[in-house]
Amino acid sequence: MFKNDIFERLTTLLDTNKARYRVMEHATGGKSEEVAKIRGTYLGQGAKGLVCHVKGNNCRQYILAILPADQQADLALLAKQAGGNRASLASPKEVSELTRCVFGAIPPFSFHPDLKLVADPFLFERYDELAFNAGSLERSIILNTEDYRRIANPELISFRKVINQR
């Protein structure tokens, strides 16, 4: 097993780039709704990370796809936008190898050369701050949205399921 140094890597990256953020220690939450309540944030502020494997059309790519926690991913759309013809969620083993994190603790940053970072543009439209687990289910970072966009510099790909919104 590896040493989980993701939190240290994150805070060093954020400090080096003069990001506006705060760290919150908390009890482990199960679902995104529970974690948002514990953090005192809106569900939509959560930056949910999905590790996906996109294949087809001569494309084989692992992608860390980031979207608001109150949205669902359309994996077929993600595959198409990324140049493939199908996408699936990576296995727990692949997730662990590519992110050095367990499911639910993946921050919206990629520290692995084979893991391409993409974000749905909707992530940047509603809130001034994003919240995410920082390599641990018991530790979160609440980060200024524009600082996240500037520092992580994800490729913007629309891949959320658009459901009839009120």
TrEMBL record:
Residues 31-151 form the YbaK/aminoacyl-tRNA synthetase-associated domain. InterPro entries: PROXY, YbaK/aa-tRNA-synt-asso_dom_sf, YbaK/aa-tRNA-synth-assoc-dom. SUPFAM superfamilies: YbaK/ProRS associated domain. It holds the Pfam family tRNA_edit. CDD domains: YeaK. One of its GO terms (molecular function) is aminoacyl-tRNA deacylase activity. This is Prolyl-tRNA editing protein ProX. It comes from Xenorhabdus innexi. The gene is proX.
